[in-house]
């Protein structure tokens, strides 16, 4: 296995954990899937629909999100928003993220290239 394959694999592992945090952070107000994909991409977190929708369903089944259909427009859309439990989990994840980020920044130094 070459360096590029190794790096790609490690980047994928890092992204898997951070995407949940990003999704919970972005769904403080009701948002539909395609809009969420665009918002995440605008912040530098690219995610494909075939990755996002199963994640949204899983987070909903875990009680972290709730969904509702809006049929007022020309196209029905399913909107997702964090639940109280989702907000509590997000709060804990943010705390842990800050601790890990601080530790890693200290370990890696500020001039990482």
Total number of helices = 4
Low confidence ranges? none
Structural shape: globular
Number of strands: 3
Spell out the helices and strands N to C.
HEHHEEH
Distance from first to last alpha carbon: 23 Å
Structural class: alpha+beta
* Cα radius of gyration in angstroms: 16 Å
Please estimate the helix content: 55-70%
> What order do the strands of the largest sheet run in, or round the barrel if closed?
1-3-2
Write the layout of secondary structure elements.
Layout: H1 3-26, E1 31-32, H2 33-42, H3 49-61, E2 65-70, E3 77-82, H4 84-108
Antiparallel strand pairs: 1-3, 2-3
Structural summary, described in words:
With 113 residues, this protein is α+β, with helices and mostly antiparallel strands. It is built from 4 helices and 3 strands, in the order H-E-H-H-E-E-H. The chain has helices at residues 3-26, 33-42, 49-61, 84-108, and strands at residues 31-32, 65-70, 77-82. It has a 3-stranded antiparallel sheet. Strand 2 and strand 3 form a beta hairpin. 11% of the residues are buried.
For this entry, give a set of tags.
single chain; alpha+beta; 113 residues; 64% helix; 3-stranded antiparallel β-sheet; 3 strands; globular
């Amino acid at each position: 296995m070459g360096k590029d394959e190794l790096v790609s694999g490690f980047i994928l592992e890092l992204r898997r954990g951070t995407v949940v945090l990003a999704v919970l952070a972005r769904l403080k107000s009701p948002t539909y899937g395609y809009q969420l994909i665009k918002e995440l991409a605008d912040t530098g977190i690219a995610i494909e629909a075939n990755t996002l929708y199963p994640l949204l369903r899983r987070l909903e089944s875990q009680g972290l999100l709730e969904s509702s259909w809006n049929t007022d427009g020309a196209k029905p859309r399913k909107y997702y928003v964090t639940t109280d439990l989702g907000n509590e989990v997000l709060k804990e994840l943010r705390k842990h993220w800050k601790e890990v980020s601080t530790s890693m920044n200290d370990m890696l130094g500020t001039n990482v290239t």
